[in-house]
Amino acid sequence: PLLLPLTLTPPCSPQFLGVHYLLHFHLPIHTPMTASIRIFCRGCQELLYRYTKRGNGSLVKIWPPRVLEDRTNGDLHCHQCQAQFARHAVIRAKAVFRVIPSRVFWKR
Known about the structure:
A hairpin with a 5-residue loop joins β1 (34-41) and β2. The model has no long low-confidence stretch (mean pLDDT 83). Helix content is 9%, strand content 35%. The chain is mainly beta. It has helices at 14-17, 19-24; strands at 34-41, 47-54, 61-62, 67-70, 86-91, 94-99, 104-107. It is globular.
């Protein structure tokens, strides 16, 4: 008789899980919601930015490429009341603005 080598497949191997599981494992569940929002200064209600926000969470950081309209002087201070509304930060090797939540509010 012909003897074949005995190979056991562990339960976490791709051969054990099947191809259909591997095809759907790394696909995103849904695409994030995007909306154009307006960001205002909380002190004087002056419009600071028009911005494309992704997702339905709170406004934590501002990515500069997503800014549609910039009404500030570029120094992260309100041009009317001179209040600082964000700080410079680096996230994933890219420059972003970290928002100070008590200084701004936003509307859709």
